[in-house]
Amino acid sequence: MQLNSLGFPRIGRRRELKFALEQYWRGELSRNELVAQAKALRQTHWQWQADAGVERLPVGDFAYYDQVLTLAATLNVIPERHRDGDKVDLDTLFRVARGRAPSGKAAAAAEMTKYFNTNYHYIVPELHPNQTFSIAWTQLFDEVEEVKALGYDPKPCILGPVSFLYLSKAYGSEFDKLSLLPQLLVTYAELLARFAAQGVSWVQIEEPVLALDLDESWQAAFATAYQAFTCVSVKLLLTTYYGSVAHHADIIQTLPVAGLHLDLVSAPEQLEVFLPRLGQQQVLSLGLINGRNVWAEDLDLIAERIAPVARELGDRLWLATSCSLLHTPVDLDVETALKPELKRQLAFARQKLLELRSLNTLLTVPNGADAAAIAAECVARRTARAQAADAAVAARLDALTKADFERQSAFPERQQQQQQRLKLPLLPTTTIGSFPQTPAIRGLRNRFRKGEISALEYDNQLRQVCRNTIDRQLKLGIDVLVHGEAERNDMVEYFGEQLEGVGFTKHGWVQSYGSRCVKPPLIYGDVSRPKPMTLDWAEYAQSLTDKPVKGMLTGPVTILHWSFAREDISRDTLCKQIALAIRDEVADLERVGIAIIQIDEPAFREGLPLRRCDWKAYLDWAVDSFKLSAACVRDNTQIHTHMCYSEFNDTIAAIAAMDADVITIETSRSAMELLRAFEDFEYPAEIGPGVYDIHSPNTPDVGAMVTLMERAARRIPLRQLWVNPDCGLKTRTWDEVEPALRNMVDATRELRRRLG
Question: Is CATH 3.20.20.210 correct for 391-399+414-755?
Fold first, then answer.
């Protein structure tokens, strides 16, 4: 049986790609040097996969920013504002993604949003009614040649034509994106023919939209698309992931593809649907190793379940990860400080490929010594998991009543009390929470971790940073302040390090977008809060000013989704455990006089199941978890939450049910399009639609922000509106942040003059 790798993380096990990209953007690295470092990383990753036994090495999983953007560039789908002549080059990609590159003119970056239900963000391709397609960027073909030069068989991995259109946006005017399909298929056929000319035998063509509910026109598009490829000589592996595609089994069965990949981690039941429908010559690739989590698999149980399929299909069965390993850290071997009992339960990307090899051993030589050793290790891991239970946490959950999830009064009464207490002006200005994590701050944290400075010295220097951050906001004239979060390495990891039942790594980095990486905590046991986590910083910051300073927390849903959570406890239960820990922190913040507490939930929509029939169950427990974390406060304490890069139209009722007093959301890249949700839904509370894109280094114009807020005011009552950036400012510099916030405050003053 072949081992099938759907893709490997691109950042490097020590984030080599991140640092190279940022050096290039700063002008510290030449383009040739960046390209050389990227090539060296690819070759290392290919070698690891080959050493694990993968025969066909994935090509196209590497991207300098995002693989969807790479494909868009390949197809010449580049907005006019980002072009610098007719040629598409590396800087073209960076102008699309960031709004700026070392060459060419700055322009508004393209929209960015979550890739299905993951924490990975992709750059949304922009299509217009007269869109044409042609091959304009040759990275995919160049990398095929790189693999061949190493002596291996390349397997290009590309997003399929239907999914590419679906994930794109109609830009400038509404039109049917499917009207572009015939012309797009011509270019896809050319792309596949070029692969064939290079000697490629298999192409992994990914159609993840098959996991969604699709209307008849999109369903019909699959038959049209794949009939167009019948004359192409490469074999197509139709690849699906993140959910079941069984509801489209009739469509998939008719497609002329040589193989099918199914994600059996997220939807094991679909195997029974597709196995009887498989063609006599078709390959079946089964995603048996979780590509989105770090916990080592129970390989003995998987082998027992799959053994009959292996006997039936023989070499037509491929063993695979559920999806690309993009969502996992690179290599567990560099984690030298983890406790052995925790480390033995983990598998990062490199180790997951070895799990595939071990699974192959269990299926092909089930009675050998190697198989016995593998099975014994699986039993030992299950024993270790069972020992992580905390009876006190379970008892506290069992004791909850309905009253624990509800605020004392309805929002209108709370709003009146909060206005009396806070005395905020019309259109209050604020920021989302974090301020620049400067090289000095990162260096200070690094010195503290190495033991070069004492805890007292570290704390004193961070207090100076906090004081400086408050002073800067006061000079800018911002109404509701934040302490800046200089002490936090990450909005989730910071809390994970202080919770019981949660572990963390040193090098477990995962790409979120571009050069932005996160290091998710490991939820290995029942979760509780042994002591306050943010109290000292909130108290200190509030002591520096009479203006309100927000207490800043990450919400339970986001901590859950942005962690690697254990899989033997329901996500509902884990989320409520985390909610109780956050609730304790909320109560402490209120006790010391913090009047505004923000509980961020940017991952709220991310956890939404892909099919609508499964939404209600998730939304019920996600909403309840947020309410549980916040419902303990008095009416005159204002609860905020923040959400970014999400479509709100279809979940607006659930967001309202969270019963937050103020929500801040990302809207600037979409030019307030996301506020369409509020045309048909009368949102009951206050809202701050982001007025500038913090992910771009460009300084927002006062007039542009005024225009955006005027659009918002046409949909939302003025007294409900706040003014704020899209997201936190951690990744920006002070030279970028201060002029942007100054313009935001000036824009607000102009709006107050016009509208007030």
Answer: yes
